[in-house]
Write a structure and sequence with these properties.
Chain lengths: ~110, ~120
């Protein structure tokens, strides 16, 4: 079956760069996503990358995709305390009953220390 | 504010009981999705409806059921509740979601936290 894996915790100091990594199993995924969940809130789409791209940059966010290794990463430059949240990697399911729907990793909790 | 409204925000009930969670999608969104978030399982896709019809089914237990009404709001019914059903249940909506078209961006509500004692 499909699986999306992420490390559960990351702690960085304010001003440093954060890199959150994710591995996925379905090589046919057309889009890969990063969602952010702030405390007490629902998930919010942060950014996404199309599978034919290697990199996408959006202000402080850089997404890198290595299709060969099925590895996705999210880099946050100049990390701020407001970036403290849980970050979810997601791919689109292409199998079974959940086909077409997002399959999420368990989320990486980013803690930013002042 | 995502525009997706979920009620109730918190719910405490006993084992064996039945509860109903409600979701109002963003205006104009035809698809509604239900996800269960727990510490050990992470975010699990339960079920999707598109314009009133069931579109996709994930890891939803037989004790759980859902429906989408003509006004596009959705309800998730959880019955014969067990301690392990305690979780945060999210509803999300999107404009697209017809068969084979993928989800597009999902907009999530703030969730309904269910505690089963």
């Amino acid at each position: 079956g499909e699986d999306v894996e992420q490390s559960l915790f990351l702690s960085v100091r304010e001003g440093d760069s954060s890199v959150i990594n994710c591995t996925y199993t379905d090589s046919s995924s057309t889009y890969l996503y990063w969602y952010k969940q702030e405390p007490g809130a629902g998930l919010q789409l942060l950014t996404y990358i199309f599978s034919n791209m290697d990199m996408k940059q959006d202000q402080r966010l850089t997404v890198l995709l290595n299709k060969k290794d099925k590895h996705l990463s999210l880099r946050i430059a100049d990390t701020q305390t407001g970036d403290s949240a849980i970050y979810f990697c997601a791919e689109i399911s292409n199998y079974g009953g959940s086909q077409g729907n997002l399959i999420f990793g368990k989320g990486t909790k980013l803690s930013v220390k002042p | 504010d995502s525009g997706v409204t979920q009620t109730p925000k918190h719910l405490i009930t006993a084992t064996g009981q039945r509860v109903t969670l409600r979701c109002s999608p963003r205006s104009g969104d035809l698809s509604v999705y239900w996800y269960q978030q727990s510490l050990d399982q992470g975010l699990q896709f339960l079920i999707q409806y598109y314009n009133g019809e069931e579109r996709a089914k994930g890891n939803i237990l037989e004790r759980f059921s859902a429906q989408q009404f003509p006004d596009l709001h959705s309800e998730l019914n959880l019955s014969s509740l067990e301690l392990g059903d305690s979780a945060l249940y999210f509803c999300a909506s999107s404009v697209v979601g017809g068969r084979g078209r993928g989800t597009g961006e999902l907009f999530f509500g703030e969730g309904s936290r269910l505690t089963v004692l």
